[in-house]
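hiii, so i know i said id send this last week but things got crazy w the move. better late than never?? heres the sequnce for the chain we talked about at the cafe, plus the structure i predicted for it. fair warning i was half asleep when i ran it
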Amino acid sequence: MTALTLPQKPLTVALLGSTGAVGQELLKLLEERAFPVGELRLLASQRSAGTIQFWNGSSLKVREVNESEFDGVDLVLASAGSGISRRWREVISKAGAIMIDNSSAFRMEPGVPLVVPEVNPQAIKTHRGLIANPNCTTILLTVVLAPLASLKPIRRVVVTTYQSASGAGARAMDELKQLSHEVLQGRTPKSKVLPYSLAFNLFLHNSPLQLNSYCEEEMKMVNETRKIMNLPNLLLSATCVRVPVLRAHSESVNIEFSESLSPGQARDILNTSEGVELIDDFNNNRFPMPIDVAGRDPVAVGRIRQDISEPNALELWLCGDQIRKGAALNAIQIAELLLSRS
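okay and structure toks below
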């Protein structure tokens, strides 16, 4: 079966899950990056149907998703959750559209490419109408790991994430603002969106615990990183933490190579790597922060240093906007990659 391609013309694009945080960012990016949209269909649940959203100078009505909405569609950008993506997969396929899915539904399915354009662009060649967008923390991590792996083989990675409220959606972001205000008023915050209040607090990621005592989010990082980088035997351990930041995730990363790689060599290649911004000012103790990347495209990396406990290992710190590069931007870049190869 030959891989589907996008036509060289203004496209009919369906945005499935247009009212969520990632959906809103997809709308911005389609306009900012002048993606060749001829017709844009905004699709959501019955609850959101009928609302008005603004895009590229036009007012568009959100429509309830149904089978007929995919007729004539070239590209579906799906960001409505795993259940919705699974529900509409076959309908979208039968309509002849290409689906770029932001949920976890198909990431580890054999034959479905899991793509970070800066890392494994060649993977899209194998798609059969469906391409998976990786988990946010995995995207940020692999954008930094891949250039380093091109210098020296990576043996082991230990990562701790500091994940913002945006990873749990727009409602979690709004709740963080509200509950922070309540704390400042001397009240006891009670969370409804997340299991615990994030206001002046943090907690270990609340995704379901697995039999190995790692949570689902941590195992996503392990399995997805191996697939994206084509390193099935990569040793990787993750600890994921939710922190009181509105948007932009941070990660503390320890990387052990098969042989020594100097901090200077790492800085040199990361400084010229696509999608990476180096913020590494040791003289002024200035390294990446979430506010450096919020609303921006690059993954910022810094505090690159020799691990004093292992001569073949480096330590580094990175920050990236979870909604943007961690989700919406990566999806748009995949679509742009498809267009460039049509």
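btw The mean pLDDT is 95. thought thatd interest u
miss u guys!!
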